Amino acid sequence: MTKKKVMIIEDDEGITDVLRTVIEMYGYEVVVAGDNSIIEDVQNSLPDLLLMDVWMKECDGRKTCRHLKNQADTKHIPIIMVSATRDLIKSARDSGADDFLEKPFEIEDLVGKIQKLI
Questions:
Q1: pLDDT average per 10 residues of sequence, the chain (118 residues)
Q2: What phi and psi, each to the nearest 5 degrees, are found at residue 46?
Q3: Which of 63, 104, 105, 113 is 20 to 30 Å from 22 at the Cα level?
Q4: CATH number of domain containing 97
Q5: Residue 105 in contact with residue 86, Cβ under 8 Å?
Q6: Domain of 100?
């Protein structure tokens, strides 16, 4: 059986490393998108789920989410928006995300949302 693939889109390397370790512990394959080539990385990798930060140095996660949800080859991929922003629920809904997770979050909440969507 092929492992389900989760792509992390996060500009904080420390958070990325923790997320990668945790998600791999639960048996998923993890790939990380480059800050400047997110759309291309997603289209080339076609992961089973995206875990995307809202605020990144090089791009706006909301715009990226909206773009991916409007493309035929990526619109089916579940996206979980992750952020410490106060208006995360509105941002996630407005951008077409499938779910959201507020930082800081519990590992069980993260894994539960991933398992629910893939």
A1: 92 92 97 85 95 86 95 97 88 95 93 97
A2: 40, 65
A3: 63
A4: 3.40.50.2300
A5: no
A6: 5-117
